[in-house]
Design brief:
Elements (H helix, E strand, L loop, with lengths): L2 E6 L9 H15 L7 E5 L14 E8 L4 H19 L6 E8 L9
Parallel strand pairs: 1-2, 3-4
Antiparallel strand pairs: 1-3
């Protein structure tokens, strides 16, 4: 289940975030090769962020996936998510940082 956690210093009050969620869900599912129903997106606005010494519009993201990540996929994801942030929130691609984690599934026993 890929999960994208995005934080930005852009105020999202009054912003229609639906296109961000739908486009990010589609692009992550397509690039990683998972169904859209597996993708989770979290979006937080008005987060105090300083990047390159300024508080101009910027964003930080963490993407966690159980498998499916590699250097080629990561590059595509960075570009696609950067495009979304630039077109929907006017955050330049140069002011966006995306950290990615490929993790393993953990099975829990009901006999704890």
């Amino acid at each position: 289940m890929p999960c994208l956690n995005l934080s930005t210093n852009v105020c999202l009050e009054g912003v229609d975030t639906s296109p961000i969620f739908s486009e990010a869900t589609k692009v992550i599912a397509k690039i990683i090769g998972r169904p859209e129903s597996y993708v989770m997106i979290l979006l937080k606005g008005s987060v105090p962020i300083s990047f390159e010494g300024t508080q101009e519009p910027a964003a930080f993201g963490e993407l966690i996936s159980i498998g499916g990540l590699n250097s080629e996929v990561n590059k595509k994801l960075r570009g696609a998510i950067g495009d979304i942030l630039q077109s929907k929130l006017s955050i330049p691609k140069t002011r966006f940082f995306l950290k990615m984690y490929d993790t393993k599934a953990i099975r829990f026993s009901s006999n704890l």
